């Protein structure tokens, strides 16, 4: 296909994870949310490109490697394997995995630094100020909350040294104007208001270097070999280095349609540094930043190793299956809000939505088709008020789920699907095909119809569940003898399952016993 004929990809990025520890619940959720967005867009017929990766440079990585007596690169290689294994386990189907130690990234970073330096956007200056060791950045008193430094800053020390600075002050008025004119740039909207509040104070220029006297693990500045690049300036560039910045193919992807990040790295990194960096090199901004909240322990308590309340996603996916874990985090958290995670909440939702509703409807429908119809789904023979109501609800649900997914409301979308499943279960209770099977000819027509209607309802639910529980959706199609649905734009109530043979499989979501209320412990913490 000629370059001019290529349709631009729907390009989604995630924050790249920091190579200083193992994957936790927040990492897993961000990847699952991003994967669900991409899968839903593919179901709308879009060609997608999904990028995630690992942020490998910086002081904390260097210090951790020194503590373990290994080279920083070996540490990053090990951590990269852990994060990629987590993605595979969670069915996160990314298209590219960028690592900031890769030559394709470092060459772009050095090229951009050279360009900005030559344009006069970077200058050298002495600086005396406050420095957050944990956040690896210079901070200011305005960053304090109620007279105290935020916990994420760790120790704050006074530091004096010569460094290179990126001019940001002159872009502040432009950025304020841009945010006011593009009120959907940041989702949810109240996060954009928070950025505007941040910009109410004068911006400082950004220190984009660290002297090698205290940090060597980083990308060396192309114009001064005594310094490496500040990790945030380096890391943000991954969104364009991974798609070939400076090459012909770059504009098949850029601007990114969605950048998915956590609320802790919105401002100033993604909402201030990144837009100004892009403007300085003459690129459009991403179309939207989608900002999710934090997972908290039961009762809104912050998770920490010292409190013993940290959730390891690998444990849940190993014990209950990755689909069950994906379903819980997507249904429990409204994007943008904080949410609690407890085993009690997980078990409750698993029992109610997955086992008792979705799994039960599939199991009973397939079993009755085998028992009463010889394993072949019959065509619809009767259409009365009960059938018309369920058909109307199914059509309405298709539209509702598609609209909710477009606006990242996966919690609402899954509730909409479950409402349809519950209605289908109630429909079977009303029709009672197990009773009709013993009746006369009219009763047998109603029995066959009820099973055909339940099966069609399941087919539609399976299609709508693909972004959340892809493996289970495929198993639903297989048990119904149905073709996989790959396009929501053509999804509609129909009669495509008539004469299809069901294929009974293992229970989709095995029941959790009432006594199984303890957090799983699979791997050492």
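-> sequence recovered:
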């Amino acid at each position: 296909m000629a370059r001019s004929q290529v349709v631009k990809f729907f390009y989604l990025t995630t924050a790249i994870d920091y190579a200083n520890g193992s994957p936790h619940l927040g990492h897993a959720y961000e990847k699952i949310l991003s994967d669900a967005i991409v899968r839903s867009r593919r179901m709308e017929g879009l060609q997608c490109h999904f990028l995630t990766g690992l942020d490998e440079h910086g002081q904390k990585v260097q210090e951790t490697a020194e503590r373990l007596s290994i080279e920083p690169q070996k540490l990053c290689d090990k951590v990269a394997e852990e994060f990629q294994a987590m993605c595979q386990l969670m069915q996160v189907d990314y298209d590219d995995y960028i690592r900031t130690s890769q030559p394709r990234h470092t060459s772009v970073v050095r090229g951009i630094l050279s360009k900005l330096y030559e344009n006069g956007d970077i200058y050298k200056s002495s600086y005396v100020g406050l420095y957050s060791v944990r956040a690896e950045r210079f901070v200011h008193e305005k960053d304090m909350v109620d007279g105290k430094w935020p916990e994420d800053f760790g120790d704050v020390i006074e530091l004096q040294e010569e460094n290179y600075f990126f001019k940001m002050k002159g872009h502040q008025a432009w950025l304020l104007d841009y945010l006011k004119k593009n009120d959907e740039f940041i989702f949810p909207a109240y996060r954009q208001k928070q950025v505007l509040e941040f910009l109410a104070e004068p911006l400082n220029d950004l220190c984009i270097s660290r002297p090698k006297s205290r940090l060597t693990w980083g990308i060396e500045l192309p114009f001064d070999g005594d310094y490496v690049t500040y990790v945030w300036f380096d890391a943000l560039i991954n969104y364009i280095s991974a798609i070939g910045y400076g090459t012909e193919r770059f504009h098949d992807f850029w601007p990114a349609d969605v950048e998915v990040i956590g609320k802790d790295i919105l401002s100033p990194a993604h909402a201030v540094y990144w837009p100004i960096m892009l403007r300085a090199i003459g690129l459009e901004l991403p179309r939207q930043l989608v900002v999710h909240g934090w997972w908290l322990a039961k009762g809104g308590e912050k998770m920490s190793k010292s409190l013993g309340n940290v959730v390891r996603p690998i444990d849940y996916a190993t014990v209950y299956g990755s689909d069950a874990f994906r379903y819980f985090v997507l249904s429990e958290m409204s994007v943008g809000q904080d949410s609690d995670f407890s085993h009690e909440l997980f078990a409750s939702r698993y029992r109610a939505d997955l086992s008792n509703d979705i799994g039960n409807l599939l199991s009973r429908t397939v079993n009755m088709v085998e028992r009463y119809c010889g394993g072949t789904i019959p065509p619809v023979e009767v259409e009365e008020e009960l059938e018309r109501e369920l058909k109307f609800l199914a059509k309405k649900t298709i539209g509702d789920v598609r609209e909710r997914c477009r606006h990242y409301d996966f919690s609402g979308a899954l509730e909409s699907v479950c409402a349809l499943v519950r209605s289908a279960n109630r429909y079977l209770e009303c029709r009672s095909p197990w009773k009709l099977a013993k009746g006369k000819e009219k009763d047998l027509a109603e029995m066959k119809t009820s099973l055909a209607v339940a099966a069609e309802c399941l087919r539609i639910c399976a299609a709508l569940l693909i972004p959340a529980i892809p493996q289970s959706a495929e198993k639903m199609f297989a048990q119904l003898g149905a073709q996989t649905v790959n396009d929501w734009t053509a999804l509609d109530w129909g009669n495509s399952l008539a004469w299809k043979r069901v294929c009974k499989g293992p229970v989709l979501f095995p029941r959790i016993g009432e006594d199984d209320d303890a957090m799983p412990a699979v791997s050492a913490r």
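The chain has two domains: 3-292, 345-490.
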